[in-house]
Specification:
By secondary structure, the chain is mainly alpha-helical. The chain has one domain: ABC transporter involved in vitamin B12 uptake, BtuC, CATH 1.10.3470.10. Helices cover 83% and strands 0% of the residues. Helix 2 runs antiparallel to helix 12, helix 6 packs across helix 10 and helix 12 packs across helix 13. The longest helix has 27 residues. The radius of gyration is 19 Å and the shape is globular. The termini are far apart.
Length: 277
Amino acid sequence: MLSISEIFEIFGHTFMMRAMVVGLLVSLCAALLGVNLVLKRYAMIGTGLSHVGFAVMAIAGIIDVAPLTLSLPVVMVTAFILLRLNDSNKINGDSAVALISTSGIAVGVIVVALTTGINLHICNVMFGSIFAMTQADMYFSVVLSIVVIGLFVLFYKQLFAVTYDENFAKATGVKVEIYKSLLAILTAVTVVLGMRMMGALLIASLTLFPALSAMRICKRFLSVVIAAAIIGVVCFFIGMMFSVALDIPPGATVVGVNLIVFMVFSGISLVIRGGTK
């Protein structure tokens, strides 16, 4: 285990600064959107999109195309498809996500098996490689993250209305389909950015855990959103500290910290409920 001085010395390196800047911004995006996704019962959409992203990035590595350039539009289209399938009476939301998710993994595995086999690139796609981020990746991720946060804040009221009651939102003049599509696009962008640091197998945790933890102790939508944002950012920072100190994968460590926070908040919630009886 590294000493405190050694940890801070590592945090002064360029690759670590890039990882922290992008990681904090993406964690914030995921936490903000996660509240809407959980309340809309779209919680597992991140898993479906990330598995499609895995397939696309595997293909991108073979045809020598920038992974983000290829995966972003494909994952956005997939988000629209999932949205339509979720609204369809023929396939429910869970089945739609499972259909897309398993198909994405299957395509990715087949492509990998027929070409390069399991190598470092594929492992990075599956489990994350935030420390390998280039300066260009950082700029690209920062710009898109700021756009996601800006659009979320700008259309906060409309997204809130669509999340809680679509019929009432329609009655008040909110164009529900447009804002549901916006939510899908923002989620797709966040998932693609988050895959670089968390990998296809763990990115969904960034949208799930902060929202669920915040809901243990907060009741109003705005308070849940603010709490989730704080939890997401703090858990990422602590996870990175432990990852460096213990020399363990950052993605899994961040998930572990989120899990501990969720259990603590669940315990606090039980105590508060018990005290009010």
